[in-house]
């Protein structure tokens, strides 16, 4: 019998529908993989019962002929999504033990579509990080190893590192992620999987612990492009509870998947050619261009002139919003409360927040507080907002002459845990290719394209026009079909 | 111009006043959540996940609150901004769950407008005056701390957290406590007409931050202080009076006024410093990224405008044009309920001048005695119109009308029924009246002599006696005529 955990979402769905296996068998197989992968530390909470209950319902629905789009598919849930009755922490001590009595819109949609939950996935604390080394619940380890014979533990990327690691290690066929400045795409690239950040507003933010509201966007991570399309269809949709939600119908992305790119033009932004970048990255990029040509696309050189200002602008806007969004964690109503003997309100705030937040979260709160302060606001925040507008205009102008943009997802392959923790700036540079699309609110995805000379996966990024997830998915599919990326991490855990 | 002056040792000082009035928007739900807003509910029973700032919760603007603020803006002839935006005002406090208040600093919903306070000699307002209003913005209220529930801890009640407030910011156009008092009363009246705020200052639905500075007449503005959360017209006036005196004394004794926030202590009748500008929070205002800019379309604005009732100034002008006295017009228009009641009375056919006199004296007097609001009046406008109609057509006299009204209040019966049943109809039966007159003149022969001798003031005595004898039911005009004839 095939190992059910090797199946994709589409294969599980179709195989279950055809009666090749039961949903309970699928859930049990994944539950077993989850239970056997503690070394990866991908989960903060495991919820095998949730997965089993959904599986039983799926099997009953099959018998009754009332199958749903994701019946029988167990998934992982990034621990940034509030889940009713299941601890939700944002990987922070601040929310350790916090059990919401409400369900995020996105997770509710997935449950309504028949999916079950294998567990809550680890992440960078409050989604702040690019290596999953800022979680209060410990680092997530990538299943991948370099081919140098060494045994260095590698970063699964961040902030959705639990999601990427779990999918790459076959602990779940798909998972939710959130992307503020690359947190879906970069971990996908690091672990040889796919992930898409849809247009800002496609997925409701209601019930997702906020990092930077104007940038945060949920999206799926999975092993291939089709699975991303299936998942996204069941996550997206207008939500009156989110004032920034897009009031647009959700297209049938899966049905319209096509890797025939005839008549499409792919833009290649010259500003993404960085001096001194790993030659493997550029080589992969060039190979990707050839693949899209092969799929029938025209290639156009384009310019996104303000790209170099994107990262600094992002690291002003995101911390500014975060500094305000995280003010609610004050020890008054829920979560951690440190109330030293005889302490007053201010003492409680100080003790609670000093203890509850990790160093990276504190760093960003301080940066954000600083850039919003009287006297600095115009120099930083206002200026960064202007840059953001210019970057959005860059894309608009570029999309006059192309349909999608192709670029690397990240400037390097996965790095070793601890290699960049001493230098926050080096860590922030990881987001250099991901951040512009975030600032412009555009759909963007990463698909695995190649292995580098160390045997580690590299991802290509496709950026699309606003609302054109289909164009992004189709280009992704064209690469996926041609790259023939079948490599997977050898099991060591 | 106000001639209100503080007399200091170095001469006279003028007071400059600006008010920021926080008015709770009348709506069933909060500004950004669906939670209820009723006053006086058990603590923490009107709190949604959004109001408690649970992780992942998002604000969604309540259209009704926006609508009420727009209508309010229209009622003060203000610029309505079709594009506005919400900003976050960041500070930590236990009654502020989000750690920020959603407000509008940079782009308020309502811009420049004004209202007019009427002349009122008795109150020290020699002439009507236009007071500029700089802006109205919409914002969230905070919760409430309760310090008396536990020996060492404070409790938090979030019922009020997230309730919609309009902050109505005046220009520094007022120059006396009386003007400020009149401004608050007029603003309250307009809000109640519009229905955007119940104006209930005791329940905290309306409170004012009072900005006061002093200067020698003609000088530049002085440094102002701001006294927060003053919750009655009387207190607003007291704060201004006390604060102006304090500032004058401070300056004249060589000190300087510092820009600071002060609190009013109604028990001691004085303000005290809360925090100075140096300790002022840096609120780190920035546009709320959870909310899109608020864009209003023409249809929405048209609906807002069409839904506005006749406002106090227009109503007052109409009453004046119908011959009602300025005093009565002021009294009748001050409270929207009274004005509505009076308009219903007119609609039921009562004559304006007589109706105005009757309402302001008879009805208000009776309600006062009964301790009732006009909305609880035992007599309806239609019933009152019938009563006034009986006076107007001569069926009963004004004196009898008072008796009938009393009986209406007691029994709830209609005026016509009472008049009929108790035989109170005014009589013009000259025979009956002449008979009584004859008796009276006979019984008071001495007075008749005096009258004829030139003491004409006695005529009233004869009228009174006749009316008494007729039990008030005689038509006074007929009595007059017959008496004149009888007395030759």
How would you describe this protein?
The complex is a heterodimer of chains A (493) and B (488). By secondary structure, chain A is an alpha/beta fold. Chain A has a domain at 4-259 and 472-483: Amidase signature (AS) enzymes, CATH 3.90.1300. Helix content of chain A is 36%, strand content 13%. Chain A is globular and about 65 Å long. The two termini of chain A are 23 Å apart. With 488 residues, chain B is of the alpha+beta class. Chain B has 15 helices and 16 strands. In chain B, strands 1, 2, 6, 7, 10, 11, 12, 13 and 14 form a 9-stranded mixed sheet that branches. A 3-stranded antiparallel sheet of chain B has the order 5-4-15, with no helix packed on it. A two-stranded antiparallel sheet of chain B has the order 3-16. In chain B, α12 crosses α14 and α14 (459-469) crosses α15 (476-486). The two termini of chain B are 58 Å apart. The model of chain B has no long low-confidence stretch (mean pLDDT 93). Chains A and B meet through α9 of A and loops of B.
The number of distinct β-strands of chain B equals: 16
Poorly predicted regions of chain B: none
Give the strand tally of chain A: 11
* Number of helices in the DSSP assignment of chain B: 15
Shape designation of chain B: elongated
Structural class of chain B: alpha+beta
Helix content of chain A: 25-40%
The main pleated sheet of chain A reads as: 8 strands, mixed
* Quaternary form: heterodimer
SSE string of chain A, helices as H and strands as E: HHEHEHEHEHEEHEHEHHHHEHHEEH
Please report the two chains with the greatest interface, counting residues with C-beta closer than 8 angstroms to the partner's C-beta. Answer: A-B, 42 and 31 residues
CATH topology title of one domain in chain A: Amidase signature (AS) enzymes
Largest β sheet strand count, sense and barrel closure of chain B:
9 strands, mixed
Beta content of chain A comes to 5-15%
Full CATH superfamily name of one domain in chain A = Amidase signature (AS) domain
Calculate the mean pLDDT score of chain A and round it.
97
What is the name of the CATH class of one domain in chain A? Alpha Beta
Helix content of chain B: 25-40%
What distance lies between the first and last C-alpha atoms of chain A, to the nearest angstrom?
23 Å
The global form of chain A is: globular
Strand content of chain B: 15-25%
